[in-house]
Amino acid sequence: MNDYTDNPEAAVVANLAQQAIHPEELDAGTVYAEADGSGGSRIVDTDRYAEHPRHIEAKRVVGDAESFVRYVTKHVVDGHTEVYADVPSSSVVAVLDSHDAGQGGWQKHTARLELRKTKSWEAWEKVDGVLLQQTEFAEFIEQQALDVRSPETAVLIEIAQSFQAKTSVDFEGGERLDSGQVRLEYKETVTAKAGQKGHIDIPNELELLLRPYIGGPVYVVYARFRYRLRGSQLGLGVVLTRPTEILDAAFADIVTEIRDGKTVVKGDEKTVVHEGIPASVPVYSGRP
């Protein structure tokens, strides 16, 4: 045994020589055990150097039902793939490598459908139950007029313009007419027309055509007009009828599309947009 007490540099060289690793070919994708230098051992996995990994690890996120179906169909593993639909989070998750009866799965390959609300739905949702000033309300109605099926767009624009033109009046009250409309009474406050009275008739209800989720179906949504007088100042708004139930229905229809596919019917012609996921894949309510 060599004594390097008087020659510390030689000791360092000798130590490095003992630790030197000689080139050695390894099998890529294999797991090895090696000494950890402290009397124990550690695992070395060369999976990342292989041509293909031993199993898939991926967390994909898609934005519509068709993309979800195509991805799941491409990667489905018979007996191991399962789908979970969760209403509160409006998400659908596929676990492509889940457990089979008597055989475990890695559960590291998933696809998630995260539904995104449309701009139109978000716009109406934002003002739901909120009272706006006349000008704000008029601008909102003009911007979203194309979402309204009834009354006609021209009528709606005319109402909006009436509110924009009557910002210098005192509103005195409102009454419901036999036609179902609401008549708002006002009195001019500018000097030239002081004391002159008039009215604006607005529908009691709007019939909207809205698509809650991007890529999802369109629904008829009803919005009731709401107004409130604070002194002579008028607050205007709309209240959507059961919007939460419409969102739940939209989610349920998208889950049905995932399971059964989507077909568009125009007249006597039927066009298959996409098939559903394989029939062997179970769909559960909840989260994985």
What overall geometry do the principal axes of the alpha carbons give? elongated
Indicate the proportion of strand residues: 25-35%
Count of helical stretches: 6
Largest sheet: 5 strands, mixed
- How many domains? 3
Helix amount: 25-40%
List the helices and strands and how they pair.
Elements: H1 8-19, E1 31-35, E2 41-45, E3 58-62, H2 65-75, E4 82-86, E5 91-95, E6 109-114, H3 119-127, H4 134-143, E7 148-150, H5 153-165, E8 169-176, E9 182-188, E10 197-202, E11 205-210, E12 219-230, E13 233-240, H6 243-260, E14 262-266, E15 269-274, E16 283-285
Parallel strand pairs: 3-6, 4-16
Antiparallel strand pairs: 1-2, 4-5, 5-6, 7-11, 8-9, 9-10, 11-12, 12-13, 14-15
Helix pairs in contact: 2-6, 4-5
Protein described:
With 288 residues, this protein is α+β, with helices and mostly antiparallel strands. It folds into three domains: 8-49, no CATH class; 58-116 and 267-285; 119-243, no CATH class. Helices cover 25% and strands 33% of the residues. The protein has six helices and 16 strands. The strands form five sheets. Strands 3-6-5-4-16 form a five-stranded mixed β-sheet, with helices on one face. A hairpin with a 5-residue loop joins strand 1 (31-35) and strand 2. The chain is elongated and about 110 Å long. The relative contact order is 0.15.
